[in-house]
Amino acid sequence: MDDPSKISVVIPVYNEEANLRALRDRLSPVMEGLRRPYEVVLIDDGSRDGSLAILREFVADPHFRVVELTRNYGQHAAILAGFSVVRGGIVVTMDADLQNPPEEIPRLIEAMEKGGYDVVGTIRRERKDSLLRTLPSRLINVVARRITKVRMTDWGCMLRAYRRHIVDYMCACREHATFIPALATYFSKRVTEIEVGHEERFGGTSNYSMWKLINLQFDLVASFSDLPLKLLMYGGIGMATLGVFFGIVLAVARLQYGASWAAEGVFTLFAVLFVFVGMQFFALGVMGEYIGRIYREVRKRPEFAIEKVHESAPEPQA
Length: 318
What we know:
Blueprint: E1 3-13, H1 20-33, E2 38-44, H2 51-58, E3 64-69, H3 75-83, E4 88-93, H4 105-115, E5 119-124, H5 131-148, E6 160-163, H6 164-173, H7 180-187, E7 191-196, H8 210-224, H9 227-257, H10 266-299, E8 306-311
Parallel strand pairs: 1-2, 1-4, 2-3, 5-7
Antiparallel strand pairs: 3-8, 4-6, 5-6
């Protein structure tokens, strides 16, 4: 049963068996210290290690629930799956690798309730990630600010707090390949962020490769903007203008210096041809990506499928 005073913590899990018990041991005392009803919703996103077996052990504690997905759908889809079953009035998201310290959760709740905010984001202080993680993250921050028109510093940190009505709006969207922090700002009237600590990954290896970060970047741009299509249009106009100018220059040079000046024009022709063919293939690729997304939306397939929700009964009383 839903409880506006309850705190729901949503944590996606994918191959995190090395971190889960430490996560529970640090998270439970923090939540107990809040002295209010709470639940922890852990989403197994098709883990291939022993994560699900460990998560099933956790449901002996009635505060823990485990959502088992049918396969791996990705971090943001897993979070939406968790959002679909939460019961609390405030929903906190965080990663399972303990880079987001659970001890920061009370500060998010306090900031939200004192300021009356819809969303509380976080800024990772003294970030512990490698340069290959921080550089794409900085690019995502710049793009997200320009697209959403919301000036938040750190869009990539998953330690965030949302009011329940914002969560319900996001669940109602049923969008594919969405970027949750940006989507939340679309429905939010008051947004803020606070500084939080950041730690080294407790165990295991990161599930975010460079390729996944690139896909996340494109998800952000394509889900909230038609900027790539506009860039192609403006680029085409620019290329056409340069082509006309270049043609005039070649014609004048040919008349002045003769046909031998540019090997009868063969090399120039190939150079221009390669540029335009490359631009055409790039344009087709971008438009094809948008069309593919339209196709996935039209099919209306669910973004995730829940195999089972593991929980103990009865639910603890407030």
